[in-house]
Amino acid sequence: MDRHLRLLRAAALALAATLAATLVAAGAMPSAAAAQPTYSCNPLPAGVNETKLLGFFAVPLAFSAIEQPQRVPTGLTTIVLELANVPEADRAIRRTQCFAANKEQNANLSAYLPRPRILVGLPYGMQLEGTWLPPVTVGDATPNLVQGALSWTGRLGTFAGNGLRLQLRAHATRGWVRGAITCNAQSLRPADSLAPCFGSVPSRDRYSPDMTGGEVLLAVDGPGYGYYVGSGYTSLDPSLRVDFTNGRGNRDTSRVTAPRLGQVPLLFGGSLRFTQTLSLLGQYYIVLDQTSLFRVGVGWRPFGRRP
Question: Residue 95: inside a domain, yes or no?
Fold first, then answer.
């Protein structure tokens, strides 16, 4: 009997020692799940900062009109080289609310956005417009976006002796922009295993705006110059594909989606025509309750009959 009691006592002590060692190890070494980013609300609700930030990203990407609205002949081709400043997101919306660790996102991948465009005149006052932003890195952003628009321009009469024009325009954007949004180089914490950006390699997140919209522009076309005002509505279905590998080799590829968003832009622009083939373009673009930016461009008409 005594021998059996001693054996039971020894087994109990060994089991207790094993449990104690396991608990100590668990406390000293956090699990991969604890270090891996998690999302407490996905799809995102409408009013949280992450949703606002996904909408903010879309503003400089919007394929709004920049060329002076004109009723151009069929076949007239215009090539536009455009440059827009990319505004900095307010720090208040960069702070996460659904992200478990409550961290600050990187919203400033590039300070500017260059974009080529080509416009081709169609019959009945129609015009086709398109662009492709190839995967060439600008700042810390690598886009791959296809954008297109179809417009109709009609004559309304005159204003102060100049031609008055109305343009109806529909546009769409598909593709993505890749960059370090969730964990950029400044937010990496290679020595802190509890940090949401524990690791030494920045994330390669992919933002998809998926925009479709329409615009109405009223333009005055004078001799050698023109100006216009306009507004419209843009519908967005944005998403973010996270791509971050932490210091333990655990890769997070979560896809964060937002509800469909709507934006109301205001456009104020104009042009100066130096010759029949060359013009200077400018625009002030505002999205209510979001941000504003400037666009400048040079338009060149190498082919087709002049208006």
Answer: yes
Query: Is residue 18 a part of any domain in this protein?
Result: no
Residue-range definition of the domain harbouring residue 285: 30-303
| 75-109 pLDDT tens trace | 999 999 999 999 998 888 888 887 755 678 888 89
Here the CATH number for the domain that contains residue 172 is: 2.40.128
Global confidence as pTM: 0.82
* Tally of domains within the chain: 1
- Domain assignment present for 149: yes
Q: What would the 3-class secondary structure string for the chain be?
A: CHHHHHHHHHHHHHHHHHHHHHHHHHHHCCCHHHHCCCECCCCCCCCCHHHHHHHHHHCCCCCCCCCCCCCCCCCCEEEEEEEEECCCCCHHHHECCCECCCCECCCCCCCEEEEEEEEEECHHHEEEEEEEECCCCECCEEEEEEEEEEEEEEEEEEECCEEEEEEEEEEEEEEEEEECCCCCHHHCCCCCCCCCCCCCCCCCEEEECCEEEEEEEEEEEECCEEEEEEEEEEEECCEEECCEECCCCCEECCEEECCCEEECEEEEEEEEECCCCEEEEEEEEEECCCEEEEEEEEEEEEECCCC
